């Protein structure tokens, strides 16, 4: 990847003259079966540009109550685009009840914001959304003339786990934002794809938000590299996560999730008494965990091999076997 980055042809992308960025945008659009693509700085920027481009000021988007683009993106749509969010509780599998969504679509009445967009997230906490649910969501949005956006930060994990072409997921949507970072392993960047008109609008808003690239082909080269080399290997991350879940489940103090279609995440509940010193103890064994999420969210990726999984499991076992409360 570093070699590809160092050899990338570059140009001024604000003027549409960076050939590597253009190649990345075209490659992503083709993969997702969309007309056009846009290289953006982050998943957050991709999701925000989708809001800007599907909605006008005073419109509304429906999203999961715990969805990244409602809960964890600083309220950008409301703050910067004057778009009102309408959250809906996420079911455990990440779907939104379509009956609830239907009930929340506002009538055409000036008392209400105009509902324009439904957003889904895939994978959801490490689970792919069911494909037949995507069809139902698509049908609902067609009937009610809403656009359908996918926060596909980890959509390649979903496609690999479901053994389908990624386009068979994304072609059910009007737009998708997918991360090249995270599991795919690029240092930075996401791609936003959709119709040509949609991407023209997103490109304009990206510039307004200060996100126009200059000679960023070096970054796009990393994105192209991961699209070419790091998708199929996600199955290895899924295998590692399954291994990790299985080994941690042997520790009686832990409650490990039982995800039916696990991709690269393992969710672990630890006893209250371990919260204070678990992370520093694991750190001494060379295992870094963040206690920001609870249950703990352990994520496998291309820098974690089977030896790493064994090291992590050993560190957890050592901690809990030593510290059983009297
Ligand atoms: C589901 C999901 N969507 C979007 C994002 C935002 O991506 P970024 O960190 O590149 O802004 C994240 C980041 O963790 C995420 O998990």
Structure description:
This protein has 326 residues and is an alpha/beta fold. The protein folds into 2 domains: 2-228, Type I PLP-dependent aspartate aminotransferase-like (Major domain) (Aspartate Aminotransferase, domain 2, 3-Layer(aba) Sandwich), CATH 3.40.640.10; 234-322, Aspartate Aminotransferase, domain 1 (Alpha-Beta Complex), CATH 3.90.1150. It has 14 helices and 10 strands. Strands 1-7-6-5-4-2-3 form a 7-stranded mixed beta sheet, sandwiched between helices. It has a 3-stranded antiparallel beta sheet with strand order 8-9-10. The chain is globular, with a radius of gyration of 21 Å. The structure holds pyridoxal-5'-phosphate. Residues 42-44, 68, 121, 151, 153, 179, 181, 190 line the site of pyridoxal-5'-phosphate (PLP).
């Amino acid at each position: 990847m570093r070699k590809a980055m160092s050899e990338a042809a570059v140009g001024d992308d604000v003027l549409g003259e960076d050939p590597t960025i253009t190649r990345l945008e075209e490659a992503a659009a083709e993969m997702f079966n969309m007309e056009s693509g846009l290289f953006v700085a982050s998943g957050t920027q991709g999701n925000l540009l989708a809001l800007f481009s599907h909605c006008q000021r005073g419109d509304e988007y429906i999203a999961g109550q715990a969805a990244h683009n409602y809960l964890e993106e600083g309220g950008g749509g409301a703050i910067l685009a004057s778009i009102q969010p309408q959250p809906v509780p996420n079911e455990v599998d990440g779907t939104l009840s379509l009956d609830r969504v239907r009930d929340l679509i506002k009538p055409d009445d000036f008392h209400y914001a105009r509902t324009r967009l439904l957003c889904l997230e895939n994978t959801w906490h490490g689970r792919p959304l069911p494909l037949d649910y995507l069809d139902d969501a698509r049908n609902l949005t067609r009937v009610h003339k809403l656009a359908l956006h996918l926060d596909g930060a980890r959509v390649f994990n979903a496609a690999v786990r479901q053994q389908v072409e990624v386009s068979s997921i994304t072609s059910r949507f009007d737009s998708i934002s997918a991360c090249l970072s995270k599991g795919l392993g690029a240092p930075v960047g996401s791609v936003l794809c959709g119709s040509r008109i949609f991407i023209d609008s997103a490109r304009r808003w990206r510039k307004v938000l200060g996100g126009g690239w200059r000679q960023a082909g070096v970054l796009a080269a990393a994105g192209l590299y991961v699209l070419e080399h790091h998708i199929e290997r996600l199955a290895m991350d899924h295998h590692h996560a399954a291994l990790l879940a299985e080994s941690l489940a042997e520790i009686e103090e832990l409650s490990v999730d039982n995800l039916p279609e696990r991709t690269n995440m393992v969710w672990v509940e630890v006893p209250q008494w371990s919260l204070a010193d678990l992370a520093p103890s694991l750190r001494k064994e060379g295992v870094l965990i963040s206690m920001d999420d609870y249950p703990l969210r352990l994520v496998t990726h291309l820098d974690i091999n089977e030896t790493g999984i064994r090291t992590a499991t050993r560190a957890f076992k050592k901690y809990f076997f030593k510290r059983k409360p009297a």
